[in-house]
Design goal:
- It is globular, with a radius of gyration of 15 Å.
- By secondary structure, it is of the alpha+beta class.
- It has a single domain, classed as Beta Barrel (Lipocalin).
- It has four helices and nine strands; from the N terminus they run ααβαβββββββαβ.
């Protein structure tokens, strides 16, 4: 699992320096990707994220694949002493692992996953002059390994982001009741 991630970092660095598009997981399987995940780390240039990142906790995300192939994301996020619920819908783009939310000018790409332990997602949203970029680390269990977090950190500069934009989200059981 962790051995594949350094090669992903190197490939991303080469592709992004060449001006290429952000890649997606080869042979992506939406069915294997579906199910519960924990958002355990994120890095972004979004000003709202940067203001809130130090108070954030790990979110519970449930991925469903709709009959048309679209991706539905239910997010349970512990915010302000309660569990906030969000639902996001991404339409398939025609490329497996690449999804679009046209009304929000947002795209989601699954960069890398082993389906049973981790997934690394790239999200971009266009509004205003500069696109907002976010790299997210999802894990099936709430506590990621130090090696996985280190590899995730190594990907940060490949997207033009910096370490001070990173939030490693502490575990929370605040929203576990809402998943039942």
């Amino acid at each position: 699992m962790v051995l594949m991630l350094p090669s992903l970092a190197l490939a991303l660095l080469c592709l992004l320096q060449a001006g290429a598009e952000v890649p997606v997981q080869p042979d992506f399987s939406a069915e294997k990707f579906a199910g519960p995940w924990h958002l355990v780390a994120a890095v972004s240039n979004c000003s709202v994220f940067l203001k809130m990142k130090d108070e954030m906790k790990s979110a519970i995300i449930t991925i469903s694949i709709l009959p048309e192939g679209d991706l539905a994301m239910k997010v349970l996020w512990p915010l302000m002493d309660k569990c906030q619920k969000f639902e996001l819908l991404f339409q398939q783009s025609g490329q497996a692992g690449h999804y679009l939310a046209a009304e929000e000018k947002r795209e989601l790409r699954v960069l890398d996953t082993d389906y049973s332990h981790y997934a690394i997602l790239h999200e971009a949203q266009w509004s205003g002059q500069r696109p907002k970029t976010m790299l997210q680390l999802f894990t099936r269990e709430q506590d990621p390994s130090p090696q996985l977090l280190q590899t995730f950190r190594e990907l940060i500069p490949t997207l033009g982001l910096t370490e001070d934009m990173l939030a490693v989200l502490p575990p929370s059981d605040q929203c576990t009741e809402a998943t039942r």
